[in-house]
Each structure stands twice: as structure tokens, then as C-alpha cells.
Design a protein that fits this description.
about 210 residues, alpha/beta, seven-stranded mixed sheet, about 40% helix, binds S-adenosylmethionine
Length: about 210
């Protein structure tokens, strides 16, 4: 399902600041070399993540699902001077690509990349976070939320990506396991009263969640 009118998308990209050189290189590299390049946040969503992070000015960011490192570098732009971003990637090959780009970034010293299963790694993190970006396997979203919520500061934010799942999650009876998992996650979030939430109709849908 085409969610965003391509003319609107193109216009919005043209009237937004361009990607910086390293982000453009990550995007070009990923589109050219990775079979799942559609997973990359991309120009507009990346710019939103940068803007939001710059508004929040987080000291501690957690990202679940690094992929080739694009969104981590967008989020890192908003960190405080003493800030740190931790990002978790299951697949060694993707983590190696991301590490190569992080090493060339001015945010190199502010990013800690963990390789392994986020469910295990998040459980082991003894930290509080100001901003969490959930962007890994869709059937894991509710578990990620439950693991992360106690480690989220009051007024801290969780952003969760692909909340429409290409339009497949918003129908009454979704078919695939990912679409079903996202529908369950959306209902789970909508039923909670201990958070403020809104869905941003950006790209594939981004849930913005604030802990009250
Ligand atoms: C949609 S991509 C992330 C895109 C990235 N945040 C960006 O915007 O460029 C999802 C990533 O999550 C990773 N992933 C899937 N299951 C995971 C798990 N259990 N723990 C950590 N990472 C996982 C995948 O290998 C994949 O690289």
C-alpha cells in the first residue's frame, strides 16, 4: 500500500535540509549493497529523528535495531555534550558496516554498539534513558517496550517505527505475523494510561510515546 503520496514525499524532501555527507554515503551504500535497504530510515525520517533528538537534548539514548547505522547517527546529533547513545544490532554483518561508519563520525566517542539479541542486552543494561528508538523485529515490540519502560526517565520518550507496517497492520484482520504483531503493539500502547502517545504519519508510521 502506498501510504504517502510520492509528490508530497518529494516536495517534503526538497524543502528539508539535505542529509549530511556521511548519512548520504550510508544511504547510498545501503541502497546499492544491502538486500533489505528499505529498512533504512532515510532522509525525511532521519531528519525528524535528528530534530526530535535536538529538541529533547537527551543524555542517554537507546536504539534497538542499528542496521547500517543511519538512524543512530541522526539521533546522536541531539545528545548533550556528555551524552551517550547505545545501539543494539543482532546481525554481525550489519553491525560491522555500522561500526565502520560510526568510526568515521564526529559522534564516534558517543556511540556504543552492542552486537547480539536486544532482549538479552537490554535486560543487562543498568541505566536510565531519556530517549529510546525501537526499530527491530516486529514480534518483539511489546517485549522491548516492557523491558525498556522501567529504564525510561519520567517524561522520557520512546519512538517505535513501522507502526502501519506498509498499511498491513491497520486493517481489521492483518495477515502476516509482523503485521499482526504491530497491530497488537498499537492496541497495547493505545490502552495504556501511563503514557502520552501519538502516531506520526511519517513514512511507515512512527509512534511517539512519552512516559507520564
Ligand atoms: C528496520 S532495521 C533498523 C533500521 C535502522 N534503525 C535505521 O533506521 O537505519 C531492523 C534491524 O533490527 C535488527 N534486529 C532484528 N532483531 C533483533 C534483535 N532481536 N536484537 C537486535 N537487533 C535486531 C535487524 O538485524 C535489522 O538490522
Amino acid at each position: 500500500m502506498e501510504l504517502i503520496n510520492p509528490l508530497v514525499q518529494e516536495y517534503a524532501e526538497r524543502f528539508s535540509s539535505p542529509e549530511d555527507a556521511l548519512l548520504k554515503e550510508i544511504a547510498d551504500f545501503t541502497y546499492k549493497n544491502h538486500s533489505e535497504s528499505q529498512m533504512l530510515s532515510g532522509h525525511l525520517q532521519g531528519k525528524f529523528l535528528e530534530m526530535a533528538s535536538t529538541m529533547i537534548r537527551p543524555r542517554r539514548i537507546l536504539e534497538i535495531g542499528t542496521f547500517t547505522g543511519y538512524s543512530a547517527l541522526c539521533l546522536a546529533k541531539g545528545l548533550t555534550d556528555d551524552g551517550l547513545l547505545q545501539t543494539i544490532e543482532l546481525r554481525e554483518a550489519d553491525a560491522a558496516i555500522a561500526r565502520g561508519f560510526f568510526d568515521r563520525s564526529v559522534y564516534k566517542e558517543k556511540i556504543v554498539l552492542h552486537t547480539g539479541d536486544a532482549k538479552k542486552i537490554v535486560s543487562e543494561l543498568d541505566e536510565m534513558f531519556d530517549l529510546v528508538f525501537i526499530d527491530a523485529d516486529k514480534p518483539g515490540y511489546i517485549e522491548y517496550f516492557n523491558l525498556v519502560f522501567p529504564k525510561l526517565e519520567k517524561n522520557g520518550f520512546i519512538f517505535a517505527d513501522n507502526i502501519f507496517f506498509h498499511g498491513e497492520a491497520i486493517v481489521a484482520e492483518p495477515k502476516g505475523k509482523n503485521a499482526k504483531a504491530i497491530k497488537d503493539f498499537n492496541e497495547f500502547i493505545n490502552n495504556r494510561i501511563d503514557i502520552e502517545k501519538m502516531i506520526l504519519t511519517l513514512r511507515d508510521g512512527l509512534y511517539l510515546i512519552r512516559k507520564k
